[in-house]
Amino acid sequence: MATLTEHLIRLTDHRDRDLLELTLAKALIDLVPIQRVVVARVIRSDQEKRWLDLVSLDARGGGTVADPLRVNFHSLPRLDDAYDRLRSLRGRQEIEVAWAGEAGPRISYLPLFPDSHADDEQGVIELHTAGVMTPEDKLLTEQLHHIYRNMHALLAYSDRDALTGLLNRKALDDTFYSAVLEELDGVAAEVKTPAGSGRERRHRVPPNYWLGGVVIDDFHLLQDKHGHLITEEVELLVARILNTSFRTQDRLYHFGDEHFAVLFHCPEEALALGAFERLRSNVELYAFPQVGSVTVSAGFTRVLADDTPGSALERVQDAIDFAQKNGRNKVCSYQDLVRRGFFGGTTVDVA
To answer: Does residue 164 contact residue 152 with C-beta atoms inside 8 Å?
Structure first.
């Protein structure tokens, strides 16, 4: 069993926010006498919210780690299905439920980020214990939770775009080398690119990941006409529309100026196309203050088994270029353009 010092090192040694919940859960299981720990997040799709158990570990061994990109949203429990979790989340306070008498087993619920109102930071820690926790155990739990929140904030600062709050280009690389890898024995594995190697690492990728890019049409004309501050407001509003057009678990990026990107998992190309068409339509219908009408062009590609972030982004850019050269305000699938003979690449069917 790892010591407190070893767990503190692990909690503060991460460069990937997606692994923090697992590290926190392992520390709690090892250091506090609890039977089971669950870290659950609230995720959204089409304005509906549900619970996703990111990590569930048992003191006797075993557990599960979910990949938010691959989750089947409609199989998840609704918020009201876990009433005590919801009470803790909405009340922003710890709730303790003694379900077999005051001296017996109980479940404690702690808001994951009690001071945050951000959609992607809504969740709870669920602790199953055989009885009442001692003050010392409660204090240790609070301290580990505090370290987790500090690390989450530091990593969020490093992988977020300062203007829009969306993820940045570095975060895309990190996700490509971790979350978009096949799960090893059902547990997400951290994969690091050798520092200073200057080379992108190749890997196997599960099927049905999609990478898309979105570009604001005629962005430089907007800058020339309205100036830098107004076009920054346009970027912010497009980022907001991105957030409402895609699901909470989808990864949204801003690479600067007019360039945005989305990395997500869905079962088929038609559904991926539908998601980008929804975004395109939402932008087209939005009345931008002082600017009026704004449109976007988008391109997307399936992530292939031998891809790197750079190779996938090249195909995305080819699809965007095609959309912009053929009228703008369009969405193009790279694989569809290949099938139609516009590009010389090959399509790949993944079972």
So the answer is: no
Separation between Cα atoms, residue 171 and residue 155, nearest integer Å: 10
Q: Which amino acid is it at 176?
A: F
Coil vs helix vs strand at 4? helix
**Exposure of 346 by Cβ count < 10 A (0-12 exposed, 13-18 middle, 19+ buried)?**
exposed
327 & 262 share domain:
yes
d(CA 206, CA 182): 6
Residue 345 lies in a domain: no
292: containing domain: 169-339
CA terminus-to-terminus distance, the chain: 41
Q: State the CATH number of the domain containing residue 329.
A: 3.30.70.270
For residue 185, being part of any structural domain is answered with: yes
Helix %, strand %, coil % of the chain (to 5): 40, 25, 35
Number of residues in the chain: 351
206 vs 101: CA distance, rounded Å: 47
In contact, 269 and 300? CB cutoff 8 Å? no
Q: What is the pTM of this model?
A: 0.76
**275: enclosing H helix or E strand:** helix 269-285
pLDDT tens-digit series, residues 27-79: 999 999 999 999 999 998 878 999 999 999 999 888 998 888 888 888 999 99
- The domain boundary, picked from 124, 159, 194, lies at 159
